[in-house]
C-alpha cells in the first residue's frame, strides 16, 4: 500500500498535466507584474491596450517608488457600491471578464471595507464615544482596586484548640489601663 500511493500521485500528475503546466510554464512573476512606468504617449497607449482601457481613460499611478509601474489608477469603488442588478460575468465578485482589478482589490471587496459608506455617526464621534467608555471603565477599575472587596472572616474555630475568643479583657491590657 505504501508503494502504490506515490505511483497514483505520479499518474495523476501525468494525466492532468494542467497542474504541472500552471506550476511550471506560467511565470507569474514576469507575466502578471506591471511593466515600467510609461514615459511617452506611445508607451501610454500600449499600456492602456494591455489593460483593455482606451487611452483617454488610462491614467497610471504616480511614479513614487511603490512599484506599481504602468498599472492603471482605477477609481476606488467597493463591491457594495456596484449595481447588484447589472448582468455581471462574475456576479459573485461583481466583475466582468478581462476587467482590470484595482491595486487595493483585497481591501475593497464586497465582504470587506466599504469606502463609499456614509455612517450615521461621524467617525470622530465614534472615537470620542469609544475612549469615553474605555476611560470610564478604567477609572472604575482603578478606583475599585483600592477598596477591599472580600468578606471579613475569622480563623476557623475547632473545639479541641480551646476558645479562640473571649468577652473578657486580657489581664495585661487591664493592668495598663488601670495604672
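Q: What amino acid sequence fits the structure above?
A:
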Amino acid at each position: 500500500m505504501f508503494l502504490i500511493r506515490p505511483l497514483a500521485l505520479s499518474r495523476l500528475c501525468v494525466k492532468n498535466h494542467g497542474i504541472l503546466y500552471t506550476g511550471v510554464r506560467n511565470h507569474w512573476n514576469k507575466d502578471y507584474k506591471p511593466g515600467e512606468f510609461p514615459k511617452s504617449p506611445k508607451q501610454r497607449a500600449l499600456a492602456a491596450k494591455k489593460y483593455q482601457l482606451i487611452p483617454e481613460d488610462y491614467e497610471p499611478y504616480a511614479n513614487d517608488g511603490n512599484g506599481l509601474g504602468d498599472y492603471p489608477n482605477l477609481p476606488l469603488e467597493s463591491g457594495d457600491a456596484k449595481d447588484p442588478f447589472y448582468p455581471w460575468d462574475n456576479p459573485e465578485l461583481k466583475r466582468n471578464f478581462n476587467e482590470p482589478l484595482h491595486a487595493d482589490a483585497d481591501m475593497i471587496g464586497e465582504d470587506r471595507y466599504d469606502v463609499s459608506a456614509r455612517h450615521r455617526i461621524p467617525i470622530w464621534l465614534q472615537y470620542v464615544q469609544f475612549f469615553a467608555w474605555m476611560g470610564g471603565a478604567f477609572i472604575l477599575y482603578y478606583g475599585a482596586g483600592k477598596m477591599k472587596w472580600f468578606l471579613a472572616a475569622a480563623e476557623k474555630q475547632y473545639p479541641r484548640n480551646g476558645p479562640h475568643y473571649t468577652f473578657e479583657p486580657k489581664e495585661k491590657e487591664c493592668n495598663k489601663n488601670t495604672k
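Q: And what stands out in the fold?
A: The chain has a mean pLDDT of 80.
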